[in-house]
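ESCALATION

Customer reports they have been waiting on this structure for their group meeting. Please prioritize. Original submission:
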Amino acid sequence: MPSRPTVRLYGRPDCHLCDEARARLLELRADGLGFDLLETDIEDDDELLARYLERIPVIELDGEPVSELGLDEDGLRARLGTVSA
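Update from on-call: job pushed to the front of the queue and completed.
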């Protein structure tokens, strides 16, 4: 059985856009969209903090950027469709 796609959310504590993106990703997964969700706190890594601070939340699918500054739900759905096809 093939592994499920991985969605990674780059964010930081006290980021309302990150919280909104996380909540929506969890809703999508609960509604049957198949992916594993990993979260990365950019404050734990100086390089990530410098790279993503002004762009969070940043969402990647299997290491490829999908959206930044929020969740592009349509883009994520389209990309998941090509991964699972």
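Sent to customer with the following note: Residues 16-30 form the longest helix (15 residues).
Escalation resolved.
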